[in-house]
Amino acid sequence: MIPEATVDQVLKAVNIADYIGQFVQLRKTGQNLFGLCPFHEEHTPSFSVNESKQIFHCFSCGRGGNVFKFVMDYDNVTFPEAVKKVADFAGIPLNVQIGHAAPVDPEIAKQQHILQDTADLFHHILVNTEKGEAALAYLHKRGLTDETIEEFQLGYAPEERNLLVAFLNNRKIDYQDQRASGLFVEDQAGKLFDRFNDRVMFPLTDGNGKVVGFSGRILQNEKSQAKYLNSPETKLFNKRDVLFNLHRAKAEIGRDGGPILFEGYMDVIAAYQAGVKNGIASMGTSLTTEQVDIISHLSKRLTVCYDGDEPGQRAIERAVTMLADHPRLQTDVVVLPDGMDPDEYIRARGAEAFQAQVKSVLTPTAFMLQFLARGVDMHNDQAKLTYLNAALKIIGKISDPVARAVYVKQLAETTDVPIAALNQSLPKPQQSQPPVARPAVTEQPARPLDRYTAAQRQLLYYVWHDDLVMQRLKNATFVFPTDYFQTLFTGWLNFLHEQPDGDLAGFLDRVDPELSGVAADVAMQSLPEATEATIDELIQTITSASTVTRLQAIKQAIVEAQRLGDKQKQGELTVQYVNLMKLLKQQQG
Fold first, then answer.
1. What is the pLDDT of residues 521-567, one digit of tens each?
2. Which of 26, 198, 375, 587 could serve as 544's disulfide partner, Cβ 3.0–4.6 Å?
3. Residue 50: strand pairing partners
4. Are 558 and 574 in contact (CB under 8 A)?
């Protein structure tokens, strides 16, 4: 464990441009440094480094953060290992052990025995003791039955930091074997403390059902703690090649047409309980090439079903991009309605509805067209044209003329642009490229940015750079309509409460990895100093965002009613649309 003060010392001692400059050729353009992104193939530099803010951001693939995040992504290492690398670069001794030391004469069977005994202990505490009552009630409240809890051997790690140490000591487990298990953290004196405490425990297994590690979830969503805590890398556990529930899903893959990739453990478990037993999950939403390779050797088809909210849809976009043109794997996408995650959908609409929903799939192209259209104001000519250009580039990559015709027709219905005009602007099909050994992230057309999202980005920027704006929103209990912007706003307030002198680069260490790219994108803006009139205008624009979102939903519903020939529904929706347009004009003054 590295003290927080030491982490801050390392962060402030290194110029991010100097470190990244070892791997990326950077050139000054305006206020920032630019170079070719090291995380994906590109020919035009879109990777930017801002020295004054000490952050990086790629405007193409979306990665971003501080120097530690760069090292974690570039070298595929843990946060402590990233701090160690940067500290070594700066010549700062950490005086702590990073990573795991090899145990004396390690034996795989012994480690498996330790982990299985630990899983049994956590499960016993959950279902048979008073200490586990609150955790068991939490799982029941989430809708899990005792049978499901038993099937997945869910458990509970109590608050004590020495319970597991005493348990393994009582079983005469060697100190070095305990260290190698990944179940403990140790202080500088070498004393072991339970890594997991006051968490619901999910045993992580390999493809044969053997326990290789754990993930623990906090019972209360406290900002000071990560929601999920995984085992570190050990002799048995490497998160890049572990897929949750794989050993159960393998038996169902041939029967159900391939696995379904969910966003989290609870989604997999809820789906399993609802009769969808071929669900798997990566260790977070960042799918790895190793995991894709495992899946492609088991199945020719993969269905991606992440959360229906904005971060979930962005995660689908990343997965679809990564899986594009995979030589062995066909990819489908399930989009859940109303921003729901699988667990919420099942509880709201039932198991049978969910079973039907996961069979209602989109092709990657259909998903991308839908994703690019989210939040675009089709009444705004510039936004509409930007969307059309991006959508036509997507369709232009398709060589099959029938598929091209299908998607052009859908695009015409969405935008009210004649099919003939779209075909005239459609790029010629690209020549098929030979498959590569490792799927690479390729450049995607930039998603059009509607003015409501732009207003939220600008307002959050001013929050981070102007204390008066931050205090104004805090005092007014302002809420950003978009969840991930609100999460970043709340996180900033909590960060400043804990560290009044904290800076933006330090804050990025606290940001959820899935939001680090968004945060860096917001921070990399170059905006003039805020005036009271500017902030008033941004707030007014943002408050009308929900109305515009409803208008877009009704517009799409009208198109669907026209397609189905439902004139009554079309009339009802038109009335709603007109009334909302009046409301929007009132909101905009």
1. 898 888 888 888 999 888 888 877 667 667 777 888 888 778 777 78
2. 587
3. 55
4. yes
Provide the pairing of β-strand 199-205 with 211-218.
Answer: antiparallel
CB 20 within 8 A of CB 49: yes
Tokens of residue 340, six digits: 């729901």
Residue 186 in contact with residue 206, Cβ under 8 Å?
no
Residue 268, both tokens: 């997999």
Look at residue 36 and give its three-state secondary structure.
coil
Residue 475 makes CB contacts below 8 A (sequence gap 6+) with none
Helix or strand or coil: residue 66?
coil
Q: What is the mean pLDDT of residues 303-318?
A: 90
Encode pLDDT of 212-249 as tens digits. Answer: 999 999 987 765 678 889 999 998 999 898 999 999 99
DSSP string, 212-238: EEEEEEESS--TTS-SEEEPPP-SS--
Buried b / exposed e across 55-92, counting CB within 10 Å, b at 16+? bbbbbbbbbbbbbbbbbbbbeebbebbbbbbbbebbeb
Q: Enter the tokens of residue 326.
A: 């995979």
Helix (H) or strand (E) holding 303: strand 301-305
Q: Which residue matches tokens 């439902």?
A: 566
Distance CA 233, CA 111 (A): 13
56 residue type, one letter: F
Alpha-carbon distance values, 283 to 241, 261, 304 (Å): 9, 11, 15
How many C-beta neighbours within 10 Å does residue 504 have?
20
Return the ∠ at Cα 245 (arms to 244 and 251), rounded to 5°: 145
Q: How far apart are CA 471 and CA 300, in angstroms?
A: 54
Asked if residue 384 lies in contact with residue 391, where contact means CB atoms within 8 angstroms, the answer is no
DSSP H helical ranges for 55-107: 67-75, 79-90
Contact 136, 126 (CB under 8 A): yes
Strand order of the sheet with strand 155-157?
A: 155-157, 199-205, 211-218, 228-230
Bridge-based pairing state of the strands 211-218 and 228-230: antiparallel
Count helices and strands (H / E) in the chain.
27, 15
For 62: left if phi > 0, alpha if psi spans -120 to 50, otherwise beta; the answer is left
Give the helix, strand, coil percentages of the chain, each rounded to 5.
55, 10, 35
Six-digit token pair at 65? 């953060």
